[in-house]
Specification:
8 helices; single chain
Length: 194
């Protein structure tokens, strides 16, 4: 019975009502979005040879880098989207969003390719972007998610010619993934409690 229920209803996702819930949701969502978008693109682009490519240590390392850079970008984007959704209920100051971004990044160990510098540059970029975001009108999910799509495309282990040809397809794929994920986030979030 439990298996059938799981199959029909899926897993139950908890409500997001506290800061800790939000950090966990942003971290999990960013990992899901970055990994899904980067690997689905490579599988679509490489077709039947994808398994062999992922067995290559250099290619696999490049994919890991793409995934982690995408994670940092998606966490930033999700927080900006959440800030937009919260505006009718509250306008927490920038310090709150800075703290939440750092907390989301800290839910995972620093990846090997960032062992020496950590996330300093991504944190600085988020903070600059946040200041602009907070001082302006709210933007939609698609506009905000452009950032993640750009980062994933920048780090995808493909030739520059292919990158140029595929850019629009990847951008749209990432935006659709964000739209779907944010709809789920909206269903789970208790905006007044947050």
């Amino acid at each position: 019975m439990n298996f059938l229920r799981l199959l029909l209803l899926g897993t139950r996702k908890d409500r997001i009502a506290t800061e800790a819930d939000l950090v966990a949701a942003v971290s999990a969502g960013a990992a899901y979005l970055a990994q899904g978008a980067s690997y689905s693109y490579i599988r679509a682009r490489s077709g039947m040879v994808a398994p062999q490519l992922l067995e290559n240590p250099d290619f696999n390392a490049a994919m890991e880098r793409c995934k982690w850079e995408g994670f940092a970008a998606a966490a930033a984007d999700l927080l900006l989207i959440v800030e937009t959704r919260m505006r009718p209920h509250a306008r927490p100051p920038g310090a709150v969003w800075r703290r939440l971004y750092r907390a989301a990044l800290e839910t995972h160990p620093v990846p090997p390719h960032r062992a020496h510098e950590g996330w300093r540059d991504r944190i600085a970029a988020f903070e600059a972007r946040l200041d602009t975001h907070l001082s302006g009108p709210a933007h939609g999910t698609e506009a905000i998610a452009d950032h993640s799509a750009t980062v994933i495309m920048e780090y995808a282990p493909v030739d520059e010619i292919i990158r140029g040809v595929d850019r629009e397809m990847v951008m749209n794929n990432v935006k659709f993934r964000f739209i779907d994920h944010v709809a789920d986030l909206n269903r789970r979030a208790d905006w007044p409690a947050l």
